[in-house]
Amino acid sequence: TLKIIDYCDSKDHDTSLVKYRADVMGLCQKVKYKYLRVYLAKAPVSEYSYIKNVVLPQLDRRLPYDEVVLINSSNFTDYLMEQERVLSILNNQGNPDPLLCYGAIKARYKGQMRDVLISKLLLTFYAKADLEQWTTLATDALTYMATAPHKTMLERKLDQNGLGRLAFDFALPDTSGNIIRLSNLKGKIVVVDFWFTGCSAC
Predict the structure, then answer these.
(1) Distance, CA of 140 to CA of 201 (rounded, Å)
(2) How far is it, in rounded angstroms, from Cα 122 to Cα 135?
(3) What gap in Å lies between CA 174 and CA 141, rounded to an integer?
(4) Which positions ≥6 away from 81 have C-beta within 8 Å?
(5) Are 35 and 9 spatial neighbours (Cβ–Cβ below 8 Å)?
(6) How far apart are CA 130 and CA 108, in angstroms?
(7) How many CB atoms neighbour CB 82 within 10 A?
(8) Range name among 22-26, 33-37, 58-62 with the lowest pLDDT average
(9) What are the phi and psi torsion angles at 30 (to 5°)?
(10) CA 66 – CA 49 distance, rounded (Å)
(11) Rounded distance, CA 68 to CA 78, Å?
């Protein structure tokens, strides 16, 4: 890895190699922080101060490249996300809830990088989030996000899956062949079980 990075350093004028270096460095950093996050799940809180003040400064590496290059490196933005998750765990007494990173990311980053990280956070962890909390954060994020693809994806997700939004009014046959619509079941608890007969046992 170091040989690849050194080679890319010697060719800084080549924009494709600059992005490649950001990808390689981002991947290395992402793995380090991911392992640290896994370790923190079992580490006593008494170690947090040492990790925050001694270990993290040795891990952190910022690349002197234009933000556009770094934003286009998914490994680099993944690294920043892992870093924020580790910091959040350390600052919240071991609470691993990834949405606790939201405030720090909002304050620490600006512009397109902030939009990328906020959308990555909210879209990645939607399924595990408290829906009310997620809806509040997504609604807040859309008040300042300006980068088209990331804002659009979050708007679509909030519109389709945010708290209080109407579920899709499906129309499906029951076991007797009668078409049942969700709107026909208003006020009832509905469980929809989709299954397929063509695959082997899970």
Answers:
(1) 43
(2) 9
(3) 41
(4) 101, 117, 120, 121, 124
(5) no
(6) 24
(7) 20
(8) 58-62
(9) -60, -45
(10) 33
(11) 15
Residues with Cβ within 8 Å of residue 54, at least 6 apart in sequence: none
Task: Show the 3-state SS of 130-190.
Answer: CHHHHHHHHHHHCCCCCCHHHHHHHHHHHHHHCCCCCCCCCEEECCCCCEEEHHHHCCCCC
Nearest Cα to 87, choosing from 41, 56, 126?
56
Sign of the Cα torsion 165, 169, 170, 173 reads positive
15 pLDDT band, cuts 50/70/90, is low
**Quick one: pLDDT at residue 90?**
94
This prediction's pTM? 0.78
Q: What is the pLDDT of residues 38-72, one digit of tens each?
A: 999 999 999 999 999 999 888 877 666 677 778 88
Cα angle at 14 between 12 and 16, to 5 degrees?
Answer: 115
Q: Name residues whose C-beta falls within 8 Å of residue 117's C-beta, 6 or more positions apart in sequence.
A: 77, 80, 81, 84, 105, 109
Instruction: Give the model confidence (pLDDT) of 91-108 as tens digits.
Output: 999 999 999 999 999 999
Question: What does the pLDDT look like over 137-188, one tens digit per residue?
Answer: 999 999 999 988 999 999 999 998 899 888 888 998 988 999 999 999 988 9
Task: Read off the tokens for 152.
Answer: 């659009």
Q: What is the DSSP-derived secondary structure letter of residue 7?
A: H
